[in-house]
Please model this.
Amino acid sequence: MDNQNITLIHYGELSLKGRNRSFFENKLKENIERETGGKVTKYRGRFVLENGDPELLKNVFGISWYAEALKVDKNYDSIREIVLRNVDKELSGKSSFAVFVKRSDKSFPYTSMELENEIGSEISKSYAIKVNLKNPELSVFIEIADDVYVYFKKKQGLKGLPVDVSGDVLSLLSGGIDSPVASYLMMKRGCRVNFIHFHVFRDNNLINDSKMLRVFEALNKYQSNSRIFLVPYYQFEMAILKALHTGGHELVLFRRFMVRVAERISLKNGFKALVTGDSLGQVASQTMENIAQITNTVSIPIFQPLIAYDKQEIVDLAKEIETYELSIENYKDCCSIVSSNPRTKANSRQILALEERMNMEEVIEKTLDLVSLYNM
Ligand code: ATP
Ligand code: MG
Model:
């Protein structure tokens, strides 16, 4: 038999999920196959990927770690030969090693320790490196079960839950740093994240020339596709210009407008919650009083995964998930709606009076007529 390249995939958190387990496993399998183009089979509480591109596993949620491995014939000589040949390739610059054997097939004629010792001394004989069991620079993993696998590197997965096990949400995505990170974190909890973006243009097609397309793409890398709703907000802008004396409530009114439009779209499309990038106290609109005035306008939950994050933590994560560079690119966001003196404690009576004066319900209806949907 030829030694076959496969990838072993471990999915930690899934094992905790009791009755849902097979549902979660099937989703993960589906997501891996779609992402890598390979074939996944279940093997002793984890997956074996054949023919897929293992590089792409780094974007799949629900994986705890994975390792590119060689499937080897189940006999000592084959194992020895494969290990020595590959140690030669893996060795460069390393001076210590350890062999780790896991044997669940008890009919194999060597115990784990015997095999570790035998293979270990073969390596020592052939190469000038020392054994270091605690902190080896090179690890040799050998697993002996129905099949025999040899591998050298365990790579960290993204962890979390497979996309699609928790249902669809709608994320309010701006051109800023926070909301892409919030969207990512909801994907990590198994949501399929759809996007709604409110923009300054009259025509939704103008978004095609903006950085927003690249932001959607950067995020969809982790879930492969989503629905994107583009919404011009000039109806709101016109109405607020007419409503004089807003008392610094523009931003809260704008955010109430956005979540209501998003709620209507969610109810129509089966999205179960909204997502925003709010972080408590970060800006004037994100005090507890203001957040309360935003969340109390809608009947579905608004998830705010960044609520307790520091700005620096958000920036670090944005860099890690590769949205940061896009977020800091220039973009005409809703700067036209900030007042010079934004309210930090929204007054609910004033807000309701203002919404009546600007005819908010009509603004929402008119805006809903301007929405375009893109599948990406
Ligand atoms: P972000 O970096 O995500 O823009 P922010 O710190 O700038 O956040 P705000 O401008 O107060 O904060 O926005 C709070 C949240 O409101 C955003 O995280 C986002 O979820 C939503 N939001 C803001 N502007 C828009 C927009 N133009 N379209 C869709 N959602 C938006
Ligand atoms: Mg913003």
About this structure: The first strand starts at residue 4 and ends at 10.
